[in-house]
Amino acid sequence: xxxxxxxxxxxxxxxxxxxxxxxxxxxxxxxxxxxxxxxxxxxxxxxxxxxxxxxxxxxxxxxxxxxxxxxxxxxxxxxxxxxxxxxxxxxxxxxxxxxxxxxxxxxxxxxxxxxxxxxxxxxxxxxxxxxxxxxxxxxxxxxxxxxxxxxxxxxxxxxxxxxxxxxxxxxxxxxxxxxxxxxxxxxxxxxxxxxxxxxxxx
Length: 202
Hints:
CATH topology of the largest domain: Beta Polymerase, domain 2
Order of helices and strands: HEHEHEEEEEHEEHEHHEHH
Number of domains: 2
Number of helices: 9
Structural class: alpha+beta
Mean pLDDT: 92
Low-confidence stretches: none
Oligomer: single chain
Distance between the termini: 25 Å
Strand order of the largest sheet: 1-2-5-4-3
Strand content: 15-25%
Shape: globular
């Protein structure tokens, strides 16, 4: 396995100095584990944005109330999200409420696909609560939890599943594909520009 990106190791050390943990997550940990290039970086932490303000002076806190901050560290673009739980979705896109937590496993439950919910720390230790590693090895795209529920929360996940399957050469598992086929009409609830933007991603 490759070493984690140096920029991740550097920021992980910074967070640790201040009593917090940092993990690779989402497409970053997925592509790292697949041995693919990683440039746009997604990290997750147990530090809240207010706590991050005390030691990050180069971060953009525009979306801090959602638990998300952004760091430009050329050539990398870094998004750091605080562990959180989300309330129900009332607009097919955004949760009604967000609560910051310290529990990694609870954070994992809000994520879309098993292969995007693998946490990796600076030592390369892997935290996998939904058999994402097994799905990576088998080449499977699978929703976490009930596929119909995850799609109704955010129908854009239909296009994300298909994009990941195409990009990685994976197949969508049977239950997820069935839900996608049955609920494709849910995309009509979304802003057409959002749908177009997702469709254009490679």
